[in-house]
Amino acid sequence: MIEHILFAFSAAIVTISTNLDNLVILFGLIMVMETRRAVFGFAAAQMIILSLSLVIASGLDHSRFLNWVGYLGIIPLSLGLYGIWRQRKGSGGRQLPDTGAITSVVALFLTLSIDTLAAMTPLFADSTPAFRLTALIGAGCALATLIGIASWGAPRAQVLGPRFARLDRIAPYIMVALGLYILVNSPTDVL
């Protein structure tokens, strides 16, 4: 039981860390459009990303490439190292796009959530179906928390936005740790 709780917690940490930048953008969108539309677009995009991660990971189960699943850890590891490099180089953050219909908000968050897809797919692929459900529950709780923070922070977005932007600095380090975890604790151990 404790393994499931810890795995759900790790999936929640990954989900939150890969969505801190999205939370800042969500605050920005809330400042210029209806809160309900921005939050719904964010939630829909995240559900699509988690579903896609789960489908990809499940497809790898029935594949002859199952022994290679651990090497998917290279993706979050690379993204994390790239994020650290960008921080050291001093590159600017993501630009706030024009706002529009819910579909454009969903499309925006889908494009910004590639890091979540890259982190959650190997996490799902490297676990049994019972642990996948646990990870999905943990990620869902994390997303509910982020949506709650965004809804609560909507009137306070101008003050809270820069504070959450600073938290985004830890996300690349979490991605590196996740990539290393997937590489070390995977079917590649038997090679």
From TrEMBL:
Keywords: Membrane, Transmembrane, Transmembrane helix. The keyword Membrane applies. The chain crosses the membrane at residues 6-32, 39-59, 65-85, 105-125, 131-154, 166-184. It comes from the Bacteria. The keyword Oxidoreductase does not apply. This is Cadmium resistance transporter family protein. It comes from Ruegeria atlantica.
